[in-house]
Automatic annotation (TrEMBL):
PROSITE patterns: SOLCAR. The keyword rRNA-binding does not apply. It is a multi-pass membrane protein. Gene3D superfamilies: Mitochondrial carrier domain (1.50.40.10). It comes from the Eukaryota. GO terms for cellular component: mitochondrial inner membrane. Keywords: Membrane, Mitochondrion, Mitochondrion inner membrane, Repeat, Transmembrane, Transmembrane helix, Transport. This is Mitochondrial carrier protein. Transmembrane segments: none annotated. The keyword Protein biosynthesis does not apply.
Length: 345
């Protein structure tokens, strides 16, 4: 009797799936697979570029009057010489603990936001065959970025602190949870969201452009096939990697100054970063920021406009493969798991 009931339930779920109506268990499984694919994509892509990620942060918060390294290669050599191989991956465990849920939420949120925006767009235009435009994709990507960033922001704060801590740092964190408890105890819960405003503003063009450029490039290549890259309406992995690289380059360049300001607001008082210059040319006490605008003003005033792009080179080298790997890994994992809906669909 029990086996007959189980067979009937499976038959009903299969029928609902064929008719386009998803049973609760079927929908939950699809959501879980989508989240898993996003998490795997984030973990793999970020670990692959972990040394460049650390180098970018160190360049962003480096005191301009006590420079240890002037570029990416020199900085990586310095880390290797002083901290060894493990130093290149310092903070990566915490970074993955943040990026895996962040990536999972971001990709899933983008799919849901895209569906909602497309449905509204079709209702407004009266065209049931209408598709997402680049502008609508930009909006969906921005929504996804804000949701994911806000949900995991304390982890980003902790990751930044662990990445730059040295023997001279005011606190020494043994790990992610110790850092969280120490910050809450010593600085209060608001400290976990230092730099949140520039992060929100920066993630709008960053995530929005990443998704919009990636999908628009893919659509253009599939529909026009200008270079003969499309085979059976499907792009190769290499072509998709190139689309992801272009998307990452555009998004990070536009949003980078906000990332610098966010990091500086998080690191106030740490590692002698962003110090005021005295009349004799020596650095005084570290800067304190009253907000995002004040951080922008003081950074440009004391270090010049170029300071807003400190670490851009290692970030560019990092973002190109990272975003590309994330997009392609997400689609490949979803194919392996048998999820029928991919980003570009």
């Amino acid at each position: 009797m029990a086996s007959e009931t189980k067979i009937v339930n499976l038959a009903e779920e299969a029928k609902l799936a064929r008719e386009g109506v998803k049973a609760p268990s079927y929908a939950l499984l699809t959501i879980s697979k989508s989240l898993l694919a996003g998490g795997v994509a984030g973990g793999i892509s970020r670990t692959a570029v972990a040394p460049l990620e650390r180098m970018k942060i160190l360049l962003q918060v480096q005191n301009s009057h006590n420079i240890k390294y002037n570029g990416t290669i020199q900085g990586l050599k310095y880390i290797w010489g002083t901290e060894g191989f493990r130093g290149l991956f310092k903070g990566n465990g915490t970074n993955c603990a943040r990026i895996i849920p962040n990536s999972a939420v971001k990709f899933f949120s983008y799919e849901q936001a895209s569906k909602a925006i497309l449905q509204l767009y079709r209702q407004r235009t009266g065209n049931e065959d209408a598709q997402l435009t680049p502008v609508l994709r930009l909006g969906a990507g921005s929504c996804a970025g804000i949701i994911a960033m806000s949900a995991t922001y304390p982890m980003d704060m902790v990751r930044g602190r662990i990445t730059v801590q040295t023997e001279k740092s005011p606190f020494h964190y043994r790990g992610m949870f110790h850092a969280l408890s120490t910050i809450l105890k010593e600085e209060g819960p608001r400290a976990l969201y230092k730099g949140w405003v520039p992060s929100v503003i920066g993630v709008i063009p960053y995530a929005g452009l990443n998704f919009a450029v990636y999908e628009s490039l893919k659509d253009w290549l599939v529909t026009s096939n200008p270079f003969g890259l499309v085979q059976d309406s499907e792009l190769s992995v290499v072509t998709r990697l190139a689309c992801g690289a272009a998307a990452g380059t555009v998004g990070q360049t536009v949003a980078y100054p906000f990332d610098v300001i966010r990091r500086r607001m998080q690191m106030v008082g740490w590692n002698h970063a962003s110090s005021v210059v005295a009349g004799d040319g020596r650095a005084k006490a570290p800067l304190e920021y009253t907000g995002m605008v004040d951080a922008f003003r003081k950074t440009v005033r004391y270090e010049g406009f170029g300071a807003l792009f400190k670490g851009l080179v290692p970030n560019s080298v990092k973002v190109v493969p990272s975003i590309a790997i994330a997009f392609v890994t997400y689609e490949v994992v979803k194919d392996i798991l048998g999820v029928e809906i991919r980003i570009s669909d």
